[in-house]
Amino acid sequence: MRILLTGGCGFIGSAVVRHVLRHTGHSVVNIDKMTYAASEEALEGARTDPRHRLIRADIADAAAMRAAFAAHQPDLVMHLAAESHVDRSIDGPGDFIRTNVLGTFTLLEAARGYWSALPADRRAAFRFHHISTDEVFGALDPADPPFTEATAYDPRSPYSASKAASDHLARAWFHTYGLPTMVSNTCNNYGPWQFPEKLIPLVTLNALEGRELPVYGDGSNIRDWLFVEDHAAALVRVAEHGAPGATYAIGARQPRSNLEVVRAICAHLDRVAPDPAGPRDRLIRFVPDRPGHDFRYEIDPSATEAALGWRAPHDFETGLARTIDWYLAHRSWWEGVRAARYGGERLGKGA
């Protein structure tokens, strides 16, 4: 297939590009605006692979999107481009509305115009896969069952509200126009190439450098953690085998409190790169909680596992060790990113 993939230089998008080129025969047209969190380096071998092409464009630019569809004639859209950092959405929600809501609308309209003019066989095979988050479902109390595909929406932050709106648009274009859209919602991702403002890389790098490790509230907020390469494999399964109009909840069954995550990072670093000053959990500092901080997210992926024959292979401990070891081996990348694009020590998503 010819895949038009948005946000392919971002953290999850680049993992999808790498997976597609390593494990399938598909080709990828990668549309990315190249904002602060994008990295061409994260594409790795895709940068020189003839089956990959990078186009620097904004998904909210209607003319550019129509031109991309006309020029590259995709069989499938995988829409990952989004503003995704909760703290940034609180400080400046406008960018989130523009990219996540207006950008998704613009892309859907470009796809609809292109799809409606396709020959019947290609129109029947075309798919638009919209990738989203579990944060659209709101927060769980300790005794609540995990989110499923049927959970009602209850977003709590500008970020999650903008993603909820984009999910609704994708479904509306299916029901109103017949555009064969599919939606997937996932939990917190982690792994190589993640931008340093997110929780796991932020804590890892601060701990390496002996800096304070800020934790919101008392650290009891719970997230379900999915290794990014496992998510990429699941997304390609949805793209290849998903049913139009369907929703897929993608999770790893690996819930951890934020404090447990921070302590696990400290413990692994203490094993592989001991600090002469002592165990790194001495650096943990509890800070005032974030406004509207959801207590718990967790996904029940049973329906997706059954529908797609997929299950996340990494447990949290294995995935975390791989991730931390990757950051230890790629110091030049993250030092360059922080120096060039990252001002100050902001708290990461879910910190």
Question: What report would you give on this structure?
Answer:
- There is one protein chain.
- The protein is built from twelve helices and twelve strands.
- It has 351 residues and is α/β, with parallel strands linked by helices.
- It has a domain at 2-194 and 226-254 and 297-315: NAD(P)-binding Rossmann-like Domain (Rossmann fold, 3-Layer(aba) Sandwich).
- The strands form three sheets. Strands 3-2-1-4-5-6-10 form a seven-stranded parallel beta sheet, sandwiched between helices. Strands 7-9-11 form a three-stranded mixed beta sheet. It has a two-stranded parallel sheet with strand order 8-12.
- Helix 7 packs across helix 9 and helix 9 (258-272) crosses helix 11.
Helix and strand arrangement:
Layout (H helix, E strand, L loop, with lengths): L1 E5 L4 H13 L3 E6 L19 E5 L5 H11 L3 E4 L6 H6 L2 H23 L3 H6 L1 E7 L24 H20 L3 E6 L1 E3 L8 H10 L4 E4 L5 E6 H14 L5 E4 L4 E3 H15 L11 E4 L14 H7 L7 H14 L1 H11 L10
Parallel strand pairs: 1-2, 1-4, 2-3, 4-5, 5-6, 6-10, 7-9, 8-12
Antiparallel strand pairs: 9-11
Helix pairs in contact: 1-8, 2-4, 4-6, 7-9, 9-11
